[in-house]
Design brief:
By secondary structure, this protein is mostly helical. The protein is about 65% helix and about 0% strand. It has one domain.
Length: about 120
């Protein structure tokens, strides 16, 4: 594979990730109930598929930190799907950042959903 082909492939992948992220992340964030982080964790269904989807979103989000796209929000959506110790605390730490919280509220508002309610620190 020559350099031109590699750059074209990387560019196409970047555009595809940005488009998928722009469609998928708002839909996932809008599906969360506003009290999702106030409730105890529910048992997970389809853990392998959820973890695989979460890992793909986290990796795509990391890539989008360097190319066009919603990197932090995509990482957040991926973390919501993954199962790992400390997941809940990591998600809350990200969500409590003012810019992230504002972006999530705007995305949820566009879909007619109320802002997420977070537990007290």
């Amino acid at each position: 594979m020559d350099l031109t082909t590699a750059l074209l492939a990387a560019s196409a992948a970047s555009v595809a990730l940005a488009v998928v992220s722009a469609a998928l992340v708002p839909a996932l964030l809008a599906r969360l109930p506003d009290d999702h982080f106030l409730l105890p964790p529910a048992p997970r269904r389809h853990p392998i598929a959820r973890n695989l989807a979460g890992a793909v979103l986290v990796l795509a989000g990391v890539v989008m930190l360097f190319v066009p796209g919603q990197g932090v929000l995509t990482i957040l959506a991926g973390l919501c799907l993954l199962d790992f110790p400390g997941r809940h605390a990591a998600i809350l730490r990200i969500l409590r950042q003012r810019t992230v919280q504002r972006a999530v509220t705007v995305l949820r508002g566009r879909r007619g959903q109320p802002p997420l309610r977070l537990p007290a620190e």
